[in-house]
Amino acid sequence: MSLTADSTTHTIREGAFGNGTHLSCRACGAKSPLGPFYACMECFGPLEVGYDYPAITREQIEAGPKNIWRYQPLLPVPVDVASFPNTEPGYTRLIDAGNLARELGLRKLWVKDDSGNPTHSFKDRVVASALSATRELGMKVFACPSTGNLANAVAAAAARAGIRSVVFIPHDLERPKVITTAVYGGTLVAVEGNYDDVNKLASEIAGEEEGWAFVNVNVRPYYSEGSKTLAFEIAEQLGWRLPQQVVIPVASGSQLTKIDKGFTELGKLGLVDATDYKVYGAQATGCSPVAQAFRDGYDVVKPVKPDTIAKSLAIGNPADGPYVLDVARRTGGAIEDVSDEEVVEGIQLLARTEGIFTETAGGVTVATLKKLIESGQLDPEAETVIINSGDGLKTLDAVADRVGPKVTIPASYDAFVKAGLQ
Hints:
Strand content: 15-25%
EC number: 4.2.3.1
GO biological process, one term: threonine biosynthetic process
InterPro entries: Ser/Thr_Dehydratase (IPR050147), Thr_synthase-like (IPR004450), TrpB-like_PALP (IPR001926), TrpB-like_PALP_sf (IPR036052)
Pfam family, one: PALP
Family: Belongs to the threonine synthase family.
Shape: globular
Strand order of the largest sheet: 6-7-15-12-13-14
C-alpha cells in the first residue's frame, strides 16, 4: 500500500518509515496514518510514531555502522537511510566520570558526551531522523525555530543533503551559535522576541506554506524519535543494560521523554533486562516551568517568560512538559532547577574534573545533579548517567569573565621562579 502526502501529489514509498506503522495521539490514543501529520484530528493532541517491530537481536545492531543508523530497525527511517547524504551523527562517548563522582560522593557516574556529534550537540540525532522524513515526504524546504543547537544541526544537515534550509532564531542568541549556523550558507532569520515567539511564527508558516518541513513542528513525530538513540547507545555501551538513574536537561522536554521511550522499547524487545530506572529533569531557574509544576504537584505546566543564560533550554512553554512530569513521577525521579550562578559553577566543575567543556545546558545538568545529591533526592549509591548535550565553545560568554591566565610574566626563567610557579 502506498500513501499520499496531504495536500501534495507526492507518493510515499513502501518502507519509507521503516517498521513504523502509524501515528498515535499521546493524549487520546487515536491512530492516524503515517504522513506529514503532527496533530491528532480527534483532540489536537501531539502525535508520535507507533511500530510493529520484528525480532531484533543485539548482534544485528552491533553489526551496523558506528552512528545512529545501527538502530535503523528501531527508528522511523527506511532500510537504505544510510545511503543518502547525511551527517551520520551518534555513537558518541560514554565517559566513566570517576573524578566528578568522587567529588560529588557518587559510587558510579557516566557522562554521555554528545558534544562529539557533527555540529557538537545532540540535535544532530533528531535532525537526521527529521531529514529522512522530509525526504520521504517530498518536502523541499528544511526549516526550524531554534535556540541555537538545532539551528546549527539543520543548516549543516541541509547543506550535506543539498536541500534548502531556512532557520529562525531569537534576535539575541549567543553570537557563536549565530556564526555556526550562518556559515553553512542557508537562510538565517533573526526574529525579534524570545524562542516562544519564534516558535509561534514557525507554526504559522508551517500551516500556510506547502512543502516546508519544520523539523520540530510539522515533522515533529519523526524528528523526536531521534532522541531514542541516546537511550539505545547508553544501554549498549553499558553492556546491554539500563542505568539506575539518568539526569537529563529539559527544554521542550522531548529528549527526556524519548530517552524513557527508548529504554522501555529495549526492555520490551528483550534487548536488555527491563530493570527499574529513575529519570530526573534539569532546568535553569530563569526558565523552570516544569520544575515548578513538579514541586507544586500539578499535571499541567504554566508558561513563563525565560530569563536565563541557558538559552538552549529557554523554552517558556515546553510542548512535552506534561509528559516530562509523567515520566519523572512514574519512575520515582524528580525535576529540579538551578540558578545561573550554579550553572556556571557546573560548567567549571565538569571541565575541572573530567576535561569536558560543556555549554550552559550541560552546566544546568551538572549543577542539578549536585543539587539532587545534596537534597537527598538522588541515590549516591545507584549507577547514574548524565547527558552532556552540547559543546562549551557555543556559550563562551558564560565563563569568559571567570577564566583566564593565572599570571602574566616576562619571558625569562627568573620571572618564572619569582612568580612561584615551580
